[in-house]
Design brief:
One of its GO terms (molecular function) is transaminase activity. It is built from 14 helices and 17 strands. It is of the alpha/beta class. Strands 2-10-9-8-5-3-4 form a seven-stranded mixed beta sheet, with helices on both faces. A four-stranded antiparallel beta sheet has the order 13-14-17-16, covered by helices on one side. Strands 1-15 form a two-stranded parallel sheet. α2 (44-61) packs parallel to α10, α11 packs parallel to α13 (374-390) and α13 (374-390) runs antiparallel to α14 (397-414).
Amino acid sequence: MSEVAIFPQLEIPNTLAAGPGPGNTDLRVLQRFASAGVADHMQADVLRGMIECKQMLRQVMGTANIHTFGVAGTGWSGLDCLFSAVLPGDKVVVFVNGTFSGIDGLTLRMKAATAEELAANPMDPQPASVKIVTVPHGQSVTGEIVEAALAEHKPKWAAMAHWETGSGRINDMRGFSDACERHGAMGLVDAVSSLGVGDFRIDDYPGVHGWASCPQKGICCLPLTYAPVSFSDRYIAELRRTGCRTFVHNPVLEARHWGVIDGKDVEKGAYHRTHSAYAVAAFHEALRILLQQTVAGRAKDYVFHEAALRDAVTAMGCKVTSDMTSLVVLNLPETLKGREMELVQNCRAKGFGIWPTLSEPVQVRIGILNLLNQKAITDIVTRFAAAMNEMGANIDTAAVSERLEDHYQTTVAAE
């Protein structure tokens, strides 16, 4: 009999998480997570916390949708719940302009494929009922693109990512919603990267009937807590009419545990899945923090600090191609072109977590999720400049630092 191997205790050091996500969890959230008592998922305070989370989430998302709650897990769990109403043979149009909208497209192809279509290519089905509209990397999905596709294909469902972190582009939500209304399509939106970062209310987009986000980006919570979702009455009515082929991520069943039964708020939730008291406490605190800061206030902070980072990397000779406010996607100077992966790996080896793009062309992504202060942005800029200089970029770091300081001091003086 072989000897049992017991490894040393796992130690994970602090790193500067400066990528597209997960972001840095707020210390208040970590404290709530760690200090929660050992309680089962039906304990009274756990259930009360879930009811309060549901109510706060409606404020954060800007909605009167009764079916607004959190799906246990990561953003992928929320998206799976969002797409659950799509059935084999359903006509779907999906807009793809990066890695993650591409995965949304694959998910919808899997869900809309007939048994025969899925069996023909289980990992990459090509159902006749799904139209993928591909927009080149680095470009946004425009209202005109959406209008043309929906006018031609007349789908039951239309899906789009709001902010595509694969390329750092914001897509036209107004154009998408309006086109869905005109053509009778039910819009489904991946808001994984925009919720809690941008200043918007989902009820301002009536063509969109389902939304899904994640816990660890704009909400600034632990990755394995709750992915926010919200569904219109029309979406829920359609799901009740057709059903869906899932128990775990069925929106109607999931809502029951959050105190939404038969389309109404009730005093306490009913059993559906085992929830973690620790996760509830963390999610509750993350929502409290966001509401205290206000969605508009946090969005304003992202705009301000992204502008500082954008200006600094531009001064280093990089070209920024993104328009998100939580993420800068850039091309390196010509002298370092083709060495993007080497640069990223060097940074990560020193606890500076930046990312490459995950599809061609290879670019560098630097994020500022929950890093909304001058000290954090200065740290990012200093580390990035040093990493580039180690590879021979010859950047005047003093000049870049002075430019960054000017950005902050000028704004402070103006206020």
